Give the backbone structure.
Amino acid sequence: MSKTFDVWMEGYAASGDSADATLLASGVEADDFAAAVEIVVEKHKLEHPTEVDYWGKRNDGSWAFYACRLFQTEAEARKSFG
């Protein structure tokens, strides 16, 4: 049974640049959060082919974009760097 998920990217501060947490997608239909992230990653790769190399799966199985972790909720994403 599919559910809907939001996919948030945590904020960052590095090399004089910074950003707050960002909503990458909302209402993604999938069986679980990992599958929702896979959908978002594949869509982003198609829309932004020059950024394909910036997506990566971490050792714990979670995904990251430019080393920023992805989360289900805004609160989780804002724990680091707002």
Summary: The first strand starts at residue 3 and ends at 9. Residues 33-47 form the longest helix (15 residues).
